[in-house]
């Protein structure tokens, strides 16, 4: 059983193997983003801080894309699925961030939750097939191929960075603070 902290987030294991530790930290950071976005309406998810255009809604959509990009598209070589399959990324490389303003809070939360659920299943499939050393089905443009280990560490970094942004934005919306 996983211990939960006061916000209901799963505590990463203090002493576990590499796989459990990596997955534990990724789940903790996913739960942190969910906590920072919980209970907010469209105005709250659209709030910005200072001169930054970042919003919590944009973060949910961006991290939905990042989940699908790494676990579905790269790790398992799947074609891009809606809504990512029709985006003209050359015309708007930040489409995921910008388009979130037109989505409802429910759409954003569902998009993110579905992407996370798919990613969990796809990570489990890769772990069963080759463990952390499992190489992605797709190579980068320079020919290098990331491992599942690299993808998990990158995802932890991605969530950690954006959770710092989420802290500032959420505090500006309603004063909610905490790690």
TrEMBL record:
Protein name: DinB family protein
Protein origin, superkingdom: Bacteria
């Amino acid at each position: 059983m996983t211990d939960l902290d006061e916000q209901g987030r799963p505590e990463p294991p203090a002493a576990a193997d590499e796989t459990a530790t990596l997955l534990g930290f990724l789940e903790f950071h996913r739960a942190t983003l969910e906590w920072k976005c919980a209970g907010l309406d469209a105005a709250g998810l659209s709030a910005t801080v200072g001169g930054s255009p970042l919003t919590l809604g944009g973060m949910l959509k961006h991290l939905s894309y990042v989940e699908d990009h790494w676990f579905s598209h790269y790790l398992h070589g799947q074609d891009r699925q809606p809504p990512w399959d029709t985006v003209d990324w050359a015309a708007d490389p930040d489409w995921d961030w910008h388009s979130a303003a037109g989505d409802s809070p429910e759409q954003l939360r569902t998009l993110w939750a579905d992407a996370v659920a798919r990613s969990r299943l796809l990570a489990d499939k890769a772990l069963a097939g080759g463990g952390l050393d499992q190489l992605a089905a797709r190579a980068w443009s320079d020919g290098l191929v990331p491992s599942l280990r690299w993808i998990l560490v990158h995802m932890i970094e991605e969530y950690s960075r954006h959770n710092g942004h989420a802290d500032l934005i959420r505090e500006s919306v309603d004063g909610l603070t905490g790690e």
